[in-house]
Design a protein that fits this description.
Helix 3 packs across helix 4. The strands form 2 sheets. Strands 1-2-3-4-5-7-9-10 form an 8-stranded parallel beta barrel, surrounded by 10 helices. A two-stranded parallel sheet has the order 6-8. The chain is 51% helix and 16% strand. The protein has 11 helices and 10 strands. The structure holds 1,3-dihydroxyacetonephosphate (13P). 1,3-dihydroxyacetonephosphate binds next to strand 3, strand 10 and helix 10.
Length: 280
């Protein structure tokens, strides 16, 4: 069933676990994430960035995720990750996405508030929840790289004010993780996260989780992170599977054959993360 992220994240917050949010780039990755969710009986968020949407069109991704949701025995959310403009957010909303992120984190505080508020207004009219971002998550997701020369962490007081003034449903905060492949071990600032957790009563979102050690993810969940995003590692897993197939069958040419290897690698990865995020 295709559902909104609102109730899932509220339940996760109340019961101290997290919902996995996995970036899907093609039909094979949608199938892989669906299979892992079914196997672990986990509600799941499948998400696409504007860059992904540009590749095949928002309608194609929505159709794939909706098909997975209709087949699933677990709740499935179709989420826009890092919506980069009012127009993109509204397009995804009108297409049928059941959860929308608007990322105004590169804007000055007041402008981020007004952009987020305008998206909240549209989406809430259709009962679709909105994730916003405050602070500067490192690295580069899509074309967004907003870390240069700035204080990297979300200010806890600003976070509380931001939520109050925008009415957003969940908040992505910058606590030291980065999108993409880490060069060293990620350094999460648990002091900042603890302070945010004290002041903020809505679900928090952890971005840039590929490569973050599992124990640190668990600590983040215990400090209010209810949605945990994985993208890079899924891309790596899929490509690894395809390469493995091609290594064994260099003459291979059937996308169904190497696609199946990609699906299997992504399924195994997501399965392990889904167990972790249950936090039991
Ligand atoms: P990673 O690519 O580092 O897993 O980040 C995922 C993410 O936060 C998507 O918004």
């Amino acid at each position: 069933m295709l559902v909104s992220s609102k109730e899932l994240l509220t339940d996760a917050l109340k019961n101290h676990y997290a919902i996995g949010a996995f970036n899907v780039e093609n039909m094979e990755m949608v199938i892989a994430v669906l299979n892992a969710a079914e196997e672990t009986k986990s509600p799941v968020i499948m998400q696409t960035t504007p860059g992904t949407i540009k590749y095949a069109g928002v309608d194609f991704y929505f159709a794939n995720i909706r098909a997975a949701a209709e087949r699933a025995n677990v709740p499935v959310v179709c989420h826009l990750d890092h919506g980069n403009s009012f127009e993109t957010a509204v397009l995804a909303f009108h297409t049928g996405y059941t959860s929308i992120m608007i990322d105004g984190s590169k804007l000055p505080f007041e402008e981020n508030i007004s952009l987020t508020k305008s998206v909240v207004e549209v989406c809430h009219a259709g009962n679709v929840p909105v994730e916003a971002e405050l602070g500067r998550v490192g690295g580069k997701e899509d074309d967004l790289d907003n870390t240069k020369g700035k204080n990297p962490f979300t200010d806890p007081n600003e976070a509380a004010e931001f939520i109050e003034r925008t009415g957003c449903d969940s908040l992505a905060v910058a606590v030291g993780t980065a999108h993409g492949v880490y060069k060293g071990v990620p350094q999460i600032n648990f002091e900042v996260l603890t302070k945010i957790h004290e002041l903020v009563k809505i679900p928090l979102v952890l971005h840039g989780t590929s490569g973050v050690p599992d124990e640190q993810v668990t600590k983040c969940i215990n400090l209010g992170m209810c949605k945990v995003n994985y993208a890079t590692d899924l891309r790596i897993a899929f490509t690894h599977g395809v390469k493995e197939y091609m290594k064994g069958s260099p003459e291979g040419f059937d996308p169904k054959k190497y696609g199946a290897f990609g699906i299997e690698e992504v399924r195994k990865y997501v399965l392990q993360k889904m167990i972790l995020l249950k936090n039991k």
